[in-house]
């Protein structure tokens, strides 16, 4: 029996251990002895293999975007700790940095506060032949800013009135916009916050805004639903990604982006390009009057 494992610290097997293993039974016994959760390790190995194939497909897509001088913007929105940054990292880690990039704007300067709200985002939109990934976007003003008191009520109302027209102009000008909302449960968010606080390597991710996320959960939900109602359009729909399972969310968001384009070499990697409709799907309005 041939057993192949990636040498990743998550598995906790060293080279000498694996050289001793000749059968599946011996592998299971070794895992028990070392108190390794074999099922989790196998799941991780499968994930890394799938991820590699999808990243090969993404490289083909990038070539297509560059060759055909397309402009593509992928927006990642969602609650804190929903996994936006981790997914973006998997999108860009093997792409050509000359025709791709991550946009993660800091809080506006005094000069930017005096400008039209969308102005600083226009300046970082993709040029011809580029794909850009937005780690949060102009939709800060739809949820985070009104909830945290970072904008006034008139500013919020103006934004909500203007954003569909703004996106329609981008669409008419030929920019492809994919809007992801990474959806996480309150319980899972709390668990991830605790993990951040207890991990010195991730402590920097935990901010004062994060501390209020659980407390302001219902208020965030109210503004999130208003955002969907007013900005989910046929030309620029919201795509929901269930992210309680981080690694599944990463794979499915990759598959969704790939599914939106026909490009040379599509499917040649052997990757599964079919999205799971239980994990990634278009936002739909629920009729609360229906007794389902």
Return the CATH topology.
Answer: Rossmann fold
Largest sheet, described in full?
A: 6 strands, mixed
Distance between the termini: 51 Å
Helix content: 40-55%
Number of strands: 6
> What's the gyration radius in Å?
21 Å
What is the total domain count?
Answer: 1
What is the number of helical segments per DSSP (H or I, 4+ residues)? 12
Mean pLDDT level: 89
Class by SSE composition? alpha/beta
The low-confidence parts are 1-10, 287-292
Protein name: ADP/GDP-polyphosphate phosphotransferase
EC number: 2.7.4.-
Coiled coil: 44-71
Function: Uses inorganic polyphosphate (polyP) as a donor to convert GDP to GTP or ADP to ATP.
Task: Detail the topology: elements first, then pairings.
Blueprint lengths: L14 H6 L3 H10 L4 H30 L3 E8 L5 H9 L7 E4 L6 H4 L5 H4 L7 E6 L8 H5 L4 H20 L2 E9 L2 H12 L10 H6 L3 H15 L6 E5 L3 H14 L20 E3 L10
Parallel strand pairs: 1-3, 1-4, 2-3, 4-5
Antiparallel strand pairs: 5-6
Pfam families: PPK2
Family: Belongs to the polyphosphate kinase 2 (PPK2) family. Class I subfamily.
GO molecular function: polyphosphate kinase activity
